[in-house]
Amino acid sequence: MDVITAIRGRASTRAFLDKPVGREIVESILEAARWAPSGVNTQPWQVAVAKGEIKDRISREIVNAVESGEASRPDYQYYPSRFTGIYRERQVACGKALYGALDIVREDMERRKGQWMKNYYGFGAPVELFVMVESALEKGSWVDMGMFIQNIMLAARGFGLETCPQAAMAEYPDIVRNILGYPDSLHLICGIALGYADQEHRVNSYRTEREPVESFTRWFGSE
Known about the structure:
Blueprint (H helix, E strand, L loop, with lengths): L2 H7 L13 H11 L12 E6 H16 L17 H17 L7 H9 L9 E8 L4 H20 L3 E5 L6 H8 L5 E10 L17 H4 L7
Antiparallel strand pairs: 1-2, 2-4, 3-4
Helix pairs in contact: 2-6, 3-7
């Protein structure tokens, strides 16, 4: 698969097949991803690969925290307190596309909640990657982390796998760190569900729109 095809065809997969992913494939994906650029070659990424009972335990404990009403305590704030303008419009359109693909109406809060809770199980993926960075590092390293995460998702496609980057898996970082034995000095950025996509599932049939280049680009200087 060429890189342009990998980029344009990537989508957040929300239903995976019950098909294992071997360690050697995950290692090959990370081997490719490690070539991401980073400021002064700091290579700030840390990755925990969770499978089987460990992955299931993390999911159960996060779900228990959510259902008991325990407040989330992420290491950073992913979203603004309120979206406005075009960002709010895109947020609404994204939700409509997701729930529309599943025939879940706005008023059906029980089914909407059920779909959201699937986040914490990695949408059935056999592998969950937890991506972390040292808390002492600054925003530049977080930019580096974004490029590393994108490399993971594109490399996965080269092995016939799909992914879903999940900020939801970082809502209770203490649970993840405690189970996996990581120190508080490592901040959890996100999880990445990794596996073989269930292409027959309706949730994987929809696509969100992207703005045309001219809407976000200005040109300066002559040819």
